[in-house]
Amino acid sequence: MKILAAIDQSAYAEKVLAKAIDLAKREEAELTILSVVEPNFADAAEIGAQQVIFEQFRKNAEDLVNQAQLKAKNQGVAAKILVLEGTSVASRIVQHAEQHGVDLIVMGHKGRSAIERFLVGSVASRVVAYAPCSVLVVR
């Protein structure tokens, strides 16, 4: 069994990681910990500044997955780690799951206002809609 834990800097990351590690131990599954960084270059005049910010976001994501890997190791689970870039977090998660035969995606639920959900949707709802496998959404 292959489990993909999709984490970010949100408050849900710890719960997602704990659940994914628990499932990986119980099922003797292969665990991959993934974080996706979104470049957001809205204004060409600000690209230089935004590139610096993006590089910091990428470093933060790398630190996050490295710390998560260490937590998994401390609990007896060897985990692979991966940081991807993309303009759609949900699409990158789904794409990775498709390409690597993932059996279960574990991810957090991010609260948004009703208007935000209407306008842009949530990452979790998009992953649930398009994933090629089961998705466990942790609250």
Automatic annotation (TrEMBL):
Cellular component terms per the entry's GO annotation: cytoplasm
Domain UspA: 2-139
UniProt-listed Pfam families: Usp (PF00582)
Localization (cell): Cytoplasm
Key words of the record: Cytoplasm
InterPro entries the record matches: Rossmann-like_a/b/a_fold, Universal_stress_UspA, UspA
Family: Belongs to the universal stress protein A family.
PANTHER family: STRESS RESPONSE PROTEIN NHAX (PTHR46268), UNIVERSAL STRESS PROTEIN UP12 (PTHR46268:SF6)
UniProt name for this protein: Universal stress protein
Source organism (scientific name): Desulfocurvibacter africanus PCS
